[in-house]
Design brief:
Helix content: over 70%
Strand content: under 5%
Number of strands: 0
Largest sheet: none
Distance between the termini: 76 Å
Oligomer: single chain
Shape: rod-shaped
Number of helices: 6
Order of helices and strands: HHHHHH
Length: about 170
């Protein structure tokens, strides 16, 4: 009789165990879905809040690139005296100050975009240095003239970076 009682208890326990396992599975899936939904909503809220900051960073870097375009830079920064080396240093210092002022914006930009902006800055500085090294460049005004002539023949380094920023922002929509 004990064997029959054990079998009877076992037959009663099987449906309870099956029901318990099914309930555990459904609660586990429900909890997993709720966690996923919460993460999605949190990420969506963060993205909504971060979007204006990212756009502002792109705007500031676009302004930086416009300000270091050699033709605009030379108009904005006038030579203090006629020494070309002093003027070259002043131009490079102005570019570096503008860049350092916007360093924090890199956290909102992609690495590739930041690298392109940095390369544009460095190329602009190199362009100024090369123009200063030419034999015909003997004064600050001649340096301005040589750089502006150079810009008439080819695009400014900042133009390519600005195009990349515009492309990256258009992909955000």
């Amino acid at each position: 009789m004990e064997t029959e009682q054990i079998i009877g208890l076992f037959l009663y326990a099987i449906p309870a165990l099956i029901t318990g396992l099914i309930a555990y599975y459904f609660f586990k899936e429900h909890t997993k879905n709720e966690d996923g939904r919460r993460r999605f909503l949190l990420q969506k809220d963060l993205q909504v809040n971060a979007m204006p900051l990212r756009l502002q960073a792109y705007e500031r870097m676009a302004l930086f690139l416009e300000r270091i375009t050699p033709s605009k830079l030379l108009i904005r920064v006038s030579p203090i005296n006629s020494d070309k080396d002093t003027y070259e240093s002043l131009l490079i210092q102005t570019i570096d100050q503008e860049f350092e002022h916007n360093l924090s914006q890199q956290i909102y930009l992609s690495d590739e975009c930041w690298n392109i902006i940095t390369a544009a800055k460095n190329a602009t500085i190199q362009l100024i240095r090369k123009a200063s090294l030419l034999e015909k460049t003997d004064s600050a005004n001649k340096l301005r003239e040589v750089v502006l002539t150079e810009m008439m023949e080819k695009r400014a380094p900042s133009d390519a970076a600005l195009s990349y920023i515009k492309q990256e922002v258009s992909e955000m929509w």
